[in-house]
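Researcher: I'd like a structural prediction for the single chain below. Treat it as a standalone chain; there are no partners to consider.
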Amino acid sequence: MNSRRIAIVVVALVAAVAVGGIALYATFLAGDNVAELGLDTPAPSAAVATPSAAVSSAVPSTAAPGSSAATGDLAGPWTVVSGVAGYRVRETFLQQNAETDAVGRTEDVTGSLTVDGEAGSLRLASTQVVVEMTTLKSDRDRRDAQLRGRGIQSDTFPTSTFDLATPVALPADFGSTDVVVALPGKLTLHGVVKDVTIEAQARVEADGTVVVAGSLPIVFADYGIEAPNVAGIIAVQDNGTMEFRVVFAKG
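Model: Treating it as a single chain, here is the predicted structure.
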């Protein structure tokens, strides 16, 4: 093969790699551009389907106190009636960070909490929230398929659970305004149990439901999670964020 043909072959290979790289970037690393979950995030399906419509959790509440708060009837058992939870992680292509985070979420969230005490001196006595990891979905089917067998390995570890470790005193103005509460507990992820403290926002809505939203930084190695890496070309950073927004109803 003469030098001219060799040059043509080299140029063709370079072009193929470039086109393939662009295709891989478009497939995996375009990012989801989804706003973080917060008290004012729209309904879960809207938050996933139309991320641009999501509202930042920094927006102050203008809702009137809920009926439960107005009657001082917050003590008792509460059950999850809706919720959304998931991950947020930055991917890389040839060691270059993507422009936005990859975000996967599920609405398969169950659980309960119990409040005891009286108005002005309430405490969160117990909490358990369970997330179905097998239904996590992002805007990339290939990414979702990868995570079923790699990374969080949802086919092997189908659920993640948070259990409150000790009762927590609630602010005296809970029910009349948004509050921030530190929740110490045990997080089970990828089959590993770790002590964590989640800083969460909470609000009693006008319809009497309680909304709790928050996030927690996750270092994958702490939970035995091997960050997915495709031949050093496509990878994810070694850390991410777990986030959630859960609605509880009395009873």
